[in-house]
């Protein structure tokens, strides 16, 4: 509010109020004070004075803040001197002017408010119009994005298929390039027989031996296969594959020369203990007959197999000096020392083998087998000379009992050696079975020798008693009554001692019988349990490398590599267990055939002993059957785990949902199916060989049922279009042809129904209701499969088929 000029008359000047006075923190008291301050300055001063002084001008201020009014006499005196409120006229004029200006200001503000409302209404209409246009634009944008996403998906699928074709074409191109290169090399070997001088530098360059060996093996394999194919079709033709026959001969000569050269280099490196060079040569030699020659050559050149002094030292350690009679106790000590030295030597060789050979288990198997068949067998042949039952050795030389005691000592100590070698490592070799085979000739006739030994001891004791009785008779002359009684008493005492000795002989015989017979059941059960342990270890490897989805590419690659190693371990353990089952079956058959006869040959006067032995053997066989059953279940788990891994790694979404890009459909089995069938064919060879009869049928039936269930669960993860349904049907045909080798009718029927089930992806929607009229048993699976159709929602198949499902339920 603008102030008035103090020199002007208050009533003549207009009051000017400003709108800004009412903005911000507005105070009515402040506004009113500003209006009257110019007109009432003296009143303000008097009011201030009256507030500061007490009783000034005859006015008293009371304690509660009120002013005591002056008396009537005082008022009358003051009224005579001046007007009571002289500014009242000016204030009235001021208030009237202020009201007029306030009314004018209100009208201005109302006008401005009206204009603002009109403007806001106009802007709001424009805003709403803009929002409507934006919503339409966003909807169009979303539609464009949806079309773009669909197009990108289609292009991506097409690109993936094109990529597969390109990858296949690149592989074919690479194969063609390699084939051209191989043909060029083959033509070099196709020169005159024995002419290896005109070969490419590759085949004479020592720095490229590995490449040369690989190419030579490929050429040899190709030429031999070509000749094998040509022979049946051109019978009697002298010109058939003549050039390739020359090439095969030259390649054979070159491979032999290269193999000998590598073996010589391997031997030289072995003398210098250059493990890196040995490893390089062994890796290259593994291409020649899987490296068998290199492994056998290495084992054969070990000093313990070629040094004659080692053989002589073994004999002296166990049998003592030549011409002396060895006792069982000395033989036991000698065998313990010798077998410890053999175990230490094998352990040292194992360290070298692990560092050198790409397949160390195979080399360890050959080494352990060579140790048992050569070094141990040579010693046992000298130690255990089977005596003749017709002309047994005399008791003065130990008789049959000495042989039996030597046999028991040698058998027990050699079993300990087998356990030690198993701990060191013997590959897939059945070291316990090999050990048993070393004594098979002795154990076959063991009951006869044990029986003959007891008879020989009995006869020797009888002759001793007769000789003593004859000496007593000759020294006493005519026997009187008193002396006869004395002799009879003495004979009775001797008889008790003899019976005690008889009991001791039988106890010793029974202990040997227990040693030989108990090993049968222990060997069978332990072999199966060891094979089961390897299956358990393989399962642990699989579980260790199961990862989630949120992992880096490097971690995923490492896990995939580890999973491959776990799969190889599982396959190896599967084969090992099947070999153990096969050996177990053979051993059980032998035991069942000969056990009763072998027991009956022993000199056991108590009938209950035979029954107890039969019961114990039956218990052992039952234990072995339980271990075999559990192991076969583990084998099925191992196989199915690898099948699931292959399906997860190899199956692609585009396998069963091929884009409609105009390209011809692929009628081959999917890569996942091919890999699975190849794996099953490879791994089940051991099962077909090891299992027989009902055991084989039960195992393959269970595996077939598990495979059927696993495939159903696997296919639930995919979406199918008609071309994908055809591809699925091709896979089912491939699986069905394989499981037909199981000779399990129930499994064959399940896979035949799967082929019918795959039709749900091929037929038109309107034909689905009539598809299962002849096979109502698969409607439940069909209901799940139909939901995997690409057009399940767009064709509204759920409502179309609701009556079919309700009638089937």
UniProtKB/TrEMBL annotation:
Residues 89-205 form the Exocyst complex component Sec10 N-terminal domain. GO terms for cellular component: exocyst. Coiled coil: none annotated. Pfam families: Sec10_HB (PF07393), Sec10_N (PF20667). The keyword Ligase does not apply. Transmembrane segments: none annotated. One of its GO terms (biological process) is Golgi to plasma membrane transport. Keywords: Coiled coil, Exocytosis, Transport. Residues 211-799 form the Exocyst complex component Sec10-like alpha-helical bundle domain. This is Exocyst complex component SEC10b-like isoform X2. The lineage of its organism: Eukaryota, Viridiplantae, Streptophyta, Embryophyta, Tracheophyta.
